[in-house]
Every structure is written in C-alpha cells, then in structure tokens.
Specification:
By secondary structure, this protein is of the alpha/beta class. Helix content is 30%, strand content 26%. The chain is built from 14 helices and 24 strands. The protein has helices at residues 21-30, 47-58, 84-88, 96-103, 122-129, 161-170, 188-199, 231-244, 259-267, 306-313, 333-338, 369-381, 392-395, 401-407, and strands at 2-7, 11-16, 38-40, 62-66, 69-73, 80-81, 105-109, 134-138, 141-145, 153-155, 178-182, 203-205, 211-215, 223-225, 246-251, 271-275, 278-283, 292-294, 319-323, 343-347, 350-354, 363-365, 384-389, 411-415. The strands form 6 sheets. The chain has a 4-stranded mixed sheet. It has a 4-stranded mixed sheet with strand order 2-15-17-16. It has a 4-stranded mixed sheet with strand order 4-5-3-14, covered by helices on one side. Helix 4 runs parallel beside helix 6 and helix 8 (231-244) packs parallel to helix 12. The longest helix is centred in the middle third of the chain and has 14 residues, at 231-244. The chain is elongated and about 65 Å long. 52% of the residues are buried. The protein binds ligand EPZ. The site of ligand EPZ has 27 residues, from helix 1, helix 5, helix 6 and helix 12.
C-alpha cells in the first residue's frame, strides 16, 4: 500500500485527536494482571494495537473489538511469549512485568521494534533482577523466574519509558509490600498507565515524577477507561498545518503534553492558542528556522517528533541543527527527503538542515513509523505528485491518517 499525494493545499478545519498509542499498548499488557473484563474505550485501530491484542489472544485472553472499544477478559493459558509478532513489536516486552506479577514466571524472546537503534532491554532486566527476578538464557530465549520476587528499591540507569512501565507493573500484585522506583521516565503515557491500573484497584503513586511508589495489592478488578489523546499525532497535525499554511483546531489534547513544540512553532511564526483540551494553530507566512533543537525525555522535546520537526526545517528560512539524544539511529528519513530536494547533512547524532524554497515531488519509501509520517508532510507541501510507499510503518501509529488529512483539505489517497 502507498499514499499518492498532490501537494500545495492549505489545511483548514478541526480534528479530534485519537487516543495515545503509547498509553494503549502498556495498558493492554497490564490487563494480563486481571481476569475480569477490562474495557478500553474509543480504541483507534493502530496496527500495533491489533498486533498486541493478537499476542494476548494467543496467550489465552478473550479479546474483542466491539463498537469502537477493546474488551479484554480471562486468564492466560501460557506464559511463553515466543511468537513472530514479538520480533517486530517492541511493546511486547511490556508483557514481561504483568506476567511476572500474576504468574511469577515467563519465557521471552528479545523484542524487535522500529529500525531506529539497538532497542536493548538491559535496563528492564536490571530493574527486575533487583526485585529478585532470576533470568537464565538459552537458544535466544529469556527464562524469567519471579517465584522469589521480593520488593525494594530500583534505581534505573536511564529514565527508560518501557523499563519504568515494566517494573511498575511487575510490582503491582506484591500484596502488602512497597516498591520504590527511582530515576523514572515521566511521560504522560506512564501517568495514564498508572491511572488505568489504579482504576483496577492498584495503588501506584508518583507516576509522572522521577520516583514512583507502588503499594502491592492482592488482586485487581475489571474497569472501563479512555486513554489520553496522542501528543505525537497532535504534534504531527500541528506541524503539517504550519508547513502547508492554513488554520486547524485539534480537540482532545492537553497542551501541557506539547509545550516545547508549541514554543518552537511560535518562534517559527505560527499563531497558536491553547485551551484545556484543545490547541488551534494558524500560519500564512514563510516559516523561520528554529536554530538548535535537542530531543530528550519528557518534559523535553520528544524524540518521536524529531522526524516531524526535521521535515519542517527543510522548508524553513535559515539553518537548523537537530541533536537526537535518545536513539542512536533516528535519521533514516534523511536519505528519502534528499530525493525531494531537502538539504540535510548528518554526522552521528546531529542533523544540519539548510532551508530550501520548496521541496520537489518524488517517489519515496517509509524507513520507520515517524520517518514515514514526515515523508507525508513533505508530500503535502511539494507541488505535484509524491508517492509514499510501505505505509504499513505509518499505520502502526496513525489511524485514518489519509482520511484525517483529506478532511482538512489535503489531496491524499491510499492506493495498492
Ligand atoms: C517508548 O519506547 C516508545 N514506545 C517510543 O515510541 C519512544 O520513542 C520511546 O519510549 C522514548 O520516548 C512505546 O511506548 C511503545 P525507552 P521504549 O526505553 O520504551 C535505550 C514511537 O514512535 N534503552 O525510553 O523502547 C533505548 O535503546 C515509538 O511511538 C536501553 O539502552 O523507549 C533508547 O536509546 C518509537 N536499555 C533509550 O533507552 C533498555 O533496557 C530510550 O528507550 C531500554 C532502553
């Protein structure tokens, strides 16, 4: 499948921002800890959500998509998470913590994910080990034994999102015991995961701060929950409107999740208004380059918006330098943007972008999820027909992307 885009249209209109992929995925994993019915409302059909649900179903859970909701119940009949999907789906590693919490043993393969770097799990393993989980390795499999998991203090060597979530979930059912995790990641999706688990009767305090305290409980009960809006989707649409020109209104997003981007967009010349659950952006002038941009963990500028701010700089007046501090190989989209006339040079974790007047239409191929989304934005501003191929990468984390952009006035079609 590919997108055919005829660039040059301005964008006008309003969009409801879908629920956050990176909140939904660990939340789906956390339902492993509860046999009763859990309902995740208004679930977007991201490919990653479909894959994660399929893994849960293969492990024995009852999984149903009904009336736009995802309904999960039942218990596992296997704790061996060894299947094809786990090789491609990074978030399958989020199942380790919940399975150990409830079943106290697991067999795993080292997870896959986007081609943006090694994606190791050493911080996950180190944290679980300090809670007493024993690991053995054979034939590319990881055997985890949590029969003697006790509680205590975990200090993460780096505020890893996944490791914070995994270790937090592993501690939820240590009945009557207290676990403290320090140097935690502070992303809003972690706060949403804690809220979800607390709605099942969990006792997690401090999510969103660098120290999280978990009071273990005996059992969790069913719940019904709607996740927060996806800040990376919202950032993508804001940058699309900034690049194309026009005026859009995004509903269902907390501006506090996007403050560094909002500052960058204002400095580029966009008019932005913020409301409690809505952001509006208007721009009808040539964008000014932002200068130095550095990605970091929340509340800094998110690495997941790095490809999107990069493509915005390709048509901004002046020179910018982007420093990607989180992943070691997240500039794969640069080669594809060069086909469209972008002037970008990369050295290790730095990209230098010299703004050009306009991008040229071309046939390009998605290198990964966020790089793919950036290529779509490049096509939206390049006058003429751009083909963006291998869009399954994008559909992992964007649902109805072409339909939403068309509703704002973009000329984009999905074709075989
Ligand atoms: C989550 O991945 C997100 N995925 C990523 O979003 C996001 O880019 C990332 O957090 C950072 O915000 C989901 O939530 C499903 P990390 P995760 O552990 O948990 C290194 C997207 O586009 N690291 O915070 O895998 C790692 O290699 C995706 O939606 C270790 O070295 O990210 C990376 O360099 C892409 N050892 C850095 O830490 C470990 O044990 C950040 O990784 C774990 C991580």
């Amino acid at each position: 499948m590919k997108y055919l885009i005829n660039g040059g249209n301005k964008l006008f209109g309003r969009l409801e921002v879908d629920s956050a992929k990176n909140a939904i995925l660990p939340i789906i994993a956390s339902t492993i800890m509860c046999d009763e019915e859990c309902v995740i409302k208004e679930i977007p059909m991201y490919l990653d959500v479909i894959e994660m649900s399929a893994i849960l179903e293969k492990l024995g859970k009852k999984v149903e998509f009904r009336d736009g909701n995802l309904i999960i119940s039942g218990s596992l009949n296997s704790t061996s998470v060894i299947m094809a999907e786990t090789k491609t789906l990074r978030s399958s590693i989020f199942m380790l913590g919940p399975i150990l919490a409830k079943y106290r043993k697991a067999i795993f393969t080292s997870p896959g994910g986007c081609d943006i770097g090694k994606r190791p799990i050493d911080i996950h393993i180190a944290g679980l080990k300090s809670l007493g989980v024993k690991f053995t390795y054979a034939n590319d499999l990881i055997y985890a034994d949590a029969s003697k998991m006790q509680v205590g203090e975990v200090e993460l060597s780096f505020p890893s999102v996944g490791a914070t979530e995994n270790i937090m979930m592993a501690s939820v059912l240590n009945d009557g015991e207290i676990t403290v995790i320090r140097n935690c990641a502070r992303e809003p999706e972690i706060v949403d995961l804690a809220k979800f688990i607390n709605s099942m009767g969990g006792k997690i305090f401090g999510a969103g701060y660098e120290t999280i305290v978990i009071y273990g409980v005996k059992k969790l009960h069913g719940t019904s929950f709607r996740c927060i809006g996806d800040r990376i989707l919202a950032g993508t649409y804001l940058i699309a409107a900034a690049m194309c020109g026009g005026r859009i209104e995004l509903e269902g997003i907390d501006p506090n999740f996007l403050l560094p981007l909002i500052v960058f967009l204002r400095n580029s010349g966009c008019n932005i208004d913020l409301f409690s659950d809505k952001i509006t952006l208007e721009n009808f002038s040539k964008l000014k380059s932002i200068g130095k941009i550095e990605t970091s963990t929340f509340p800094g500028f998110p690495t997941d918006l790095q490809s999107l701010i990069l493509v915005m700089q390709t048509i901004s007046k002046g020179t910018s330098i982007i420093h990607e501090t989180v992943f070691e190989a997240r500039f794969k989209v640069v080669a594809e943007l060069a086909k469209m006339g972008a002037k970008i040079s990369v050295s290790e974790r730095y990209a230098t972008i010299i703004g050009v007047n306009k991008l040229k239409p071309s046939n390009v191929v998605c290198p990964d999820l966020r790089g793919g989304a950036a290529l779509v934005l490049a096509g939206l501003v390049a006058k003429g027909t751009t083909e963006v191929d291998e869009i399954f990468h994008i559909e992992r984390g964007y649902y109805n992307f072409d339909k939403n952009l068309r509703s704002l006035g973009a000329n984009i079609e999905k074709v075989e």
